[in-house]
Amino acid sequence: MSDSTPFSPIALVGTISLLCAFLVGAWCVASGIAGNARKSRRLVQSSVYGLYGFSALVTLASALMIYAFVTHDFSIKYVAHTSDVSMPTAYKITAFWGGLDGSLLFWVLVLALFSTVAIAFNARRHRDMIGYVVATIMVVQVFFLALLIFTKNPFATTLTSAPIDGQGLNPLLQNYWMVIHPPSLYVGFVAATIPFAFGIGALASGRLDDMWIGSVRTWMLICFGFLSLGLILGGRWAYEELGWGGYWAWDPVENAGLMPWFTATAFLHSAIIQEQRGMMKRWNLVLVCMTFFLTIFGTFMTRSGAVQSVHAFGEDNVLALQFIVFMAVIAVVSVGLIVYRSNKLATKSEFESFYSREFAFLLNNWILLGCAFFVVFATMFPTISEALDGSRISVGIPFFNKWMVPLGMILLFLAGAAPLLAWRKTTRERLWQQFRFPVLMAGTTITVVRLAFPQSVVSTPIFSDQLTLPISLVNFGLVAFVFTSISQEFIRGALVRRRQTGSDAFTSLVGLVLSKRRKYGGYIVHLGVAVAFFGFGGKAYDRMVDRTIEKPAVMDKSVTFDAEGTVAALPPNSQSGFAFGSYVFLYERLISTSDDHKDAVTAQVSIWKGGENIGVVYPAKWDYHRGEEATTEVAIRVRATEDVYVVLTGYDLDSQLANFRVFINPLIAWVWIGFLIIAFGTLVCLIPQSVADRVGTKPKSRLGRAADVGILAAVLFGLIAGLASQAQAQGGEHVKAGGGMGDSGVGWAAKNRPNNDTAEKAMKELLCVCGCPRESIYDCKCQPASGLRGQVIAFIDQKDASGKPVFDLSTAEGRTKAYDGVLASFVSEYGGEHVLASPRSKFSWLFPSLAVVGGLGLIVVVGRRMVGRGKAVTTAALAAKAPVEDDKYADKLDDELADTD
Amino acid sequence: MQNSTIAKLALTGAVVVASIAFFAKSASTSTQHYKMVDELLLTDMSRLEDQTMKVHGWVVAGTIKEKIVNQETMRTFVLHKDGKKIRVFNKGPKPDTFKDQSEVVTTGTVVPATKMAEMAASLDVRIESDMHYVVDATELMAKCPSKYEGAQANKKLDEDPKFK
Hints:
heterodimer; A: six-stranded antiparallel beta sheet; globular; B: alpha+beta; CATH 2.40.50.140; five-stranded mixed β-barrel; 4 helices; 7 strands
């Protein structure tokens, strides 16, 4: 180790933990396989304990990584790359998974924790296959650990001295949804490993009865739940943060989470058929393996750079190759074992009728699988086309929608139809009895919507541009169909239970749900899906407009403002306003604020409907001091019928001109509500038997029973309310000028931020005098910089004796005068051009030129001396003194120095 | 193998093949080409007329002209790559990083220059006589050199000789 290489005890212990975990993991693989193959209980036990030890080591490494972030250990390259001193602690912890290296460690951590729980609960029950299960989990862990240790070590330290401050996390990721969205997706991805491990364990051990299905169903449900949560949180983040008015763009990273979601959902349905009818054993194993494969494939897509995406982790051919090899191993082992055990997987039962629940489930499985394959193919289309003919051809959102919308409609129909069908065969009488009300409601809904809202008939292309149908109208009909169908099932079930128990309607309903949690929890999920589709339907009617407003209302003397600083009455034909839909938007003022991390420019816009002011919104742009591109902070006025979504797309602080993009998004709130219901349904499915027994046991008193139900309802409600409150938090974020700004702006960095473009430009040109390494007063966080910024603002804003501004910033000439004037005043006050980032003296070129010439001369002299010395060294000594390691060291050093540029 | 199994397999195979064929045909009409300016100008643009595509190039300094008409910002500029140039027309917002010499990817359609003559006139711009086709862009994306990991893909893209 070089003397100048910074030493970090955290990095040292972290790396040793990972190395130890790697060795323990390798032992678990060997002992697990050998233990079950040789029926050695001790070896199997050893693999199980090894897994617990592995989890402890990985937890230690992760804790050290978080500690490094919190204590700003910038000698660790990953910490320096993804965080900085000024970031709030919550985002420092988020930065743990904000980059590629840390996200791989987070993956290993979550799988370690999950596998500990899964093995602890199942080690005894599945003694004859648990060794294989541990080995499978550990193969996955060892693969990810190998990536971490050999190519992506998050504890790697800098070779040069540690930077004073880090580079910070991408501003787009500094959003509260981003704190929970990636972990949710990772948890969903990782949870798919447990069913896969049990599936491989069952195949390897030959124990292919229905027992393994029971053990993995909960884990697949967790996978489904977290993937759903991760996907919707990602959608919500995109809706709030990216400012394009939508929540789903079929981006490869979004699709990476959606692909395993389809197969996990398919498994949750087909597992029921195996339990009820003993069918589809092979199919279930295929789905389990495919779900896991798709999680790895999705990780490969987003982390190897195989596809371009706005938020992929970057291109890495070595990593891509490693993932390809790993995926090939998964495919060969899975297919090989399924073929090898083919005879044991055969089922005797057959489908008896198309009008049966199992056939509806099978159809649902085929459609879900079709969706997964379609998304894989379409996502990889640019990569495939480039590989085939060298030209990059992409498919856009319309192509995805053209296929996925009709497939979604079929799935929606099945969500309502399958619960109405009987197992084996549904008689004609039962078909009529079950379907008449749902079909009637669907027909009535379509007719009423068609008549009441003639504009609802919007034709959408499906499968091909030539084939168009009023899909959104059909969608509303199907939503009504599913609602009626599921409600009918709840009502009938509750009535039967009421007759059996003699209890009241509410108790019967709760008892019904708790006694068959999976069934009725699943129905709640179906209801959630219908509600989400109701929201999706609104997409057909969304509208968008762009407007450029040259002057805000505050510059119009005829407009009066109230005490709160908003326009009191809508001025007729104001040039500061524009009409869109049933609304009028009035651009009132532009506000410039700052805090420790960023500068914000916020537009105050009032929204009017029928002459009434219905609210004021504050769309903004945030310019992070460490970022290079401003982020868009949209303002959303949420209503059940439609969201009004206002984006500040551009502005000019000098002239006060502002560009706005406004979206009217009908029914979009129902998408989020639908997913909350899905989350509730998933939680109901996951209620443990012990909790259900506790509530189900008839308490001695009514009070006790009410208390039990109340506690359960409070827990579930609390969880949902927590999510809902997060969903609503957005509403409050931008309701005040510079929402989210100012409160945390207590440091000097937040004081005297530029109030116009000229001031900003000047501050970036003037250097701080605090002794910092030539930072501009715009960037420097010290107290003197704050004072100097105040000086710039005062100079530019100065007024003459008549009270008129000295510099007219609305003209280019005025701006130039102000800019030149402030620089000149600083040069004269601080005695030289050293205060300028780029000195303006006509001789300023002389000094750098002399420095370059002098430097070159020095290099020549020193070089000649070194060459002279080199000649004296023998060839053998040269060979001995130039090991390969030095080249690597030099390359690494070059990379690091390049990073500091 | 039983006849019924063979029939099931044949039926499944037929459905899969038909689906893939239909899917491929559908994809072929929905694809979006991605071309650099020089690459675009080497192709027969009459064949690309009215097709939505992405055009990638650099803004020629001094060619950005903007005007606000009825609260709508209209603009035109010239994109270039290796000496080849094409004019772009666009309405609506622009990215913060859009400026002279910035690297831009536009999404829009290639249309005959005559189709945009009216907009050119309202912007007080004369379409160059050698430009028979221009881009009517609906979206502008300006690349920004970033230190963040998300930009690494772009960095690699720039290193690709094809995109130089």
